Amino acid sequence: MNILNNISLLPYNSFGIDVRTKYFAEYQNIEELYQLLESDIARREKLLQIGSGSNLLFVSDFEGIILYSKIKFIEKMAETDGEVFLRVGSGVVWDDFVNYCVTNNYIGAENLSLIPSQTGAAAVQNIGAYGVEISDIVQTVETIDIQTLEKQIFTNSECQYDYRTSVFKTDLKGKKIVTAVEFCLSKKPNFNLSYANLKQEILKNYSEINLSNIRATIISIRDSKLPNPKIKGNAGSFFTNPYICIAHFEKLKKTYPEIPYYPVNEELVKIPAAWLIEQCGWKGKQRGRAAVNAAQPLVLVNQGSAAGAEILALAQEIQKSIKEKFAINLKLEVEVIF
Ligand code: EPU
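Above: inputs. Below: predicted complex with EPU.
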């Protein structure tokens, strides 16, 4: 266990923001995490656990200690005719796990291919794409309490999963560190092809629908819409898709009959934020070194050496225009770290 001083966070955030952290430490296993949490520095300083930094926006140097999990294992816990239970270390790169599942013919994670994340962070954030959320396959989440160092295992329902959120982002924010996640995958081919024209997209290029063809198609859809953070800094969707009440929706529909929407329940509908942003004329717009991605305007990009504050300023301008035009508050999906 080694606590480093004054480290650049450039390799640890997909936005490519060049800030530094006062302290930084990696841990390979739970024992090292315990040692770190018991150290004077961790007891004294502000503490932030990061995953792959693909959902963070740093707007200044971090005056505290950043912890980074390198707990990497995938182990089979149990198996039946129809299901397999896999326990995965929090530091496993999410797409490596998806690839492992696809290679072994385990079904359930394939639609979440290529999402940049570590497994622990993915379970906190409830990552989702193409009709699937990680909460659909999470069995349990193993954690350590930052203050008491107590171990606690959360069942799926105790995680209080919802759209891009969990109890670890709400009531327990900053209190627990995820060390491992157990997943339940299916061995039967019950694929989720509910998203838009996913099925047609697969059949355009392949003669049959199977796990590896689904993964390849999802990767190609992502590549066509989402900029590669290695080339252009970004954190995927910057905002979440807002939920609005039916009355508000009906009113908007009179002015904008073409407004896209997804029913949530009897009271709420979800509106694609990308559509709202496009309607406000933001597609491809640039402010300083921050810009709105042209192919998918829900993504803000770093055009090169942007400061976190420039990206945030652009996001706030977008929020303001959407509030004025549609009376909708866009919420950030990205976590801003001050
Ligand atoms: N749209 C436009 N203009 C555009 C692009 C999209 O109007 O230029 C509208 C269209 O109506 C389209 C709708 O937005 O049907 C939805 O677009 P898309 O399918 O690309 O998905 P999204 O709602 O923008 C969400 C997730 C993505 C995930 C995709 C696919 C959120 C915040 N984002 O985006 O997740 O990959 O669905 O399932 O829910 C992420 O969280 O970082 C992320 C990339």
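The first helix runs from residue 30 to 38.
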